[in-house]
Amino acid sequence: MLKFRKLNAFYGTSHIIHDLDLDIRKGETFCLLGRNGVGKTTLLRSLLGIDVRTTGTIEFDGADISATPTHERARRGVGYVPQGREIVPGLSVLDNILLGCNARTDGQMTVPQLVWSLFPFLKDHLGRRGTNLSGGQQQQLAIARALATDPSVLVLDEPTEGIQPNIVEDIEKAIVSLNRDHGLTIILVEQKIRFARTAAHRFAILEKGRVAASGTAADLSNDLIHRHMGL
Length: 231
Ligand SMILES: Nc1ncnc2c1ncn2[C@@H]1O[C@H](COP(=O)(O)OP(=O)(O)OP(=O)(O)O)[C@@H](O)[C@H]1O
What we know:
alpha/beta; Rossmann fold; 4-stranded antiparallel β-sheet; 32% helix; binds adenosine-5'-triphosphate; BCAA_Transport_ATP-bd_LivF; amino-acid transport; transport; nucleotide-binding
């Protein structure tokens, strides 16, 4: 579904991702792991075409999207839940969700049923400002906004980082359900090894912008984690 080939990524003259080859298969949950600063977010931004210069190719469903504008990648089916959520201040919960609809190809400007079934509480808060929700609720809102784009692949950057524990479980369940019950391909940057092992079919550990180790969830041994992540 997604193929990165000889991907290099730069901020100005800082070279962050080096000759990276990676395949994401349709229907899987793929987990990106690694210490802080190794380039996980930069890899996601390269996929979305946000704020980073790249060389090499990114193939999505058979087409090279590496020079395609961000909004067009969203229209093709890449949904993004950024680190820090980026809820738009001043907009209501409903309007934050509907922002996602702009990327739809079918012109629908309604909240997908899936959002209500995963996050029913949002219905009771539609008129509130999105930024007035708690951190965990904002994260759910950010996922709802990404789902409103009608994605085939959902890209999530540390979705439970800094979230209150009672909501972490709800978010983790939603992510697993989106993959298993709704068929979305998931790319997940995650620091929580426990959740990575539960959710992921396959993983890659990055080190200094390169893949240092990869495999199936069963290959994600304590030894690998210790060696490459110091945990
Ligand atoms: N906008 C930017 N301009 C310049 N350098 C940046 C920018 N964003 C990130 N970097 C640098 O790129 C490197 C990789 O950062 P990145 O955020 O991709 O790492 P990460 O693996 O996602 O880490 P974290 O877990 O801390 O988010 C770091 O050295 C970081 O300082």
